[in-house]
């Protein structure tokens, strides 16, 4: 649209200003620092931007997304003193309080914004989020968080994050998994970059025994994924293949997950499991060692390292690793069992070599 408008005059200039504003609002919804910088650049091109309080409020949001709290607060204070009846003035103040976890002040600001513009879905959404994080009472109170999320969803059926929090409410508070699954699926359909909703939809589908839905979501994501992306989908599908005794497919998917995030110890651990299931013990050993390097507190990966050493017949190495685990957790049953088995195997090999008293 901006390309088509070029450098207009007269009525065309109004269209250009509106398009720039919409571009900035879209970038702010992406909610990261790079998008916020681009939003500020778009706002700077709007003619007479400094005299438009709504554009100023959008600029304040962009500063907030970029982490420039002082600039955002300055705009908020200016707007509240010069335009106290404007919903956007109170909403910006609410966004600032919400980002600082000042939930009681945020509640007041969003209620003031809703009083002036009741049909704005975003204000209801953020008031719902404020209640969600404010306290356990406001989170579980049907008249607080749930009511605001439902109002936001009714006002704007395309706000994916509202459906994600409705899913969270039905799963955590109402304990209605079927309804929660419906909300997560809707959130993910609206925004395929929403990994949290996608992962929750897959997890709940598996819990409810609906493997077809889980796999269709995962297949859809992995088919479109470029190399080094969609870690959560590769990981979930890899774990599904691992559980359903398809280790070769599990290895392929978990390798893709590791490529997407080489520093995620859980991906390395799962990859080690897949290699072990496939009988690739040396590569399994490397994967478990990598996982325990990334997270030295991860007892399970250290245990699996010892277990694979034991399978390979390297009993002395396995014993040393089991003892390392038992120094930290003396009642870790798998390590005690493995240690006993290793001593027994060493005793058997001693007898075989006629070292009877060993």
Automatic annotation (TrEMBL):
GO (cellular component) term, any one: Ski complex
Entries under SMART domains matching the protein: TPR
UniProt entry tagged with the keyword Nuclease: no
UniProt xrefs under Gene3D superfamilies: Tetratricopeptide repeat domain
UniProt keyword annotation of Nuclease present: no
GO biological process: RNA catabolic process
Transmembrane segments: none
The protein, known as: TTC37 protein
Gene for this chain: Ttc37
């Amino acid at each position: 649209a901006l390309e088509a408008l070029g450098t207009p005059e007269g009525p065309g200039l109004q269209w250009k200003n509106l398009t720039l504003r919409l571009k900035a609002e879209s970038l702010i919804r992406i909610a990261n620092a790079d998008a916020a910088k681009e939003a500020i650049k778009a706002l700077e091109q709007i003619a007479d931007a400094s005299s438009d309080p709504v554009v100023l409020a959008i600029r304040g949001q962009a500063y907030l997304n970029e982490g420039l709290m002082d600039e955002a607060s300055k705009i908020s204070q200016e707007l509240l003193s010069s335009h106290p009846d404007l919903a956007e003035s109170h909403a910006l103040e609410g966004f600032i309080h919400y980002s600082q976890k000042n939930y009681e002040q945020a509640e007041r600001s969003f209620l003031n914004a809703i009083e002036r513009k009741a049909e704005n879905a975003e204000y209801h959404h953020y008031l719902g989020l404020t209640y969600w994080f404010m306290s356990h009472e406001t989170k579980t109170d049907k008249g607080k968080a749930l009511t605001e999320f439902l109002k936001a969803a009714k006002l704007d059926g395309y706000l994916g994050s509202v459906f994600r929090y409705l899913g969270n409410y039905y799963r955590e508070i109402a304990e209605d998994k079927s309804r929660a699954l419906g909300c997560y699926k809707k959130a993910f359909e609206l925004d395929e970059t929403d990994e949290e909703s996608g992962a929750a939809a897959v997890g709940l589908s598996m819990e409810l025994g609906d493997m077809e839905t889980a796999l269709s979501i995962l297949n859809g994501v992995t088919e479109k994924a470029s190399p080094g992306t969609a870690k959560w989908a590769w990981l979930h599908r890899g774990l599904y293949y691992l559980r359903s005794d398809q280790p070769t497919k599990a290895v392929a998917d978990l390798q893709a997950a590791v490529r997407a995030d080489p520093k995620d110890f859980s991906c390395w651990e799962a990859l080690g499991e897949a290699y072990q299931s496939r009988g690739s013990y040396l590569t399994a050993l490397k994967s478990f060692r990598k996982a325990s390097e990334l997270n030295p507190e991860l007892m399970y990966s250290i245990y699996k390292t010892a277990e694979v050493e034991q399978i390979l017949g390297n009993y002395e190495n396995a014993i040393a690793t089991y003892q390392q685990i038992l120094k930290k957790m003396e009642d870790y049953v798998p390590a005690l069992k493995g240690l006993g088995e290793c001593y027994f195997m060493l005793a058997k090999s001693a007898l075989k070599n006629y070292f009877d008293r060993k």
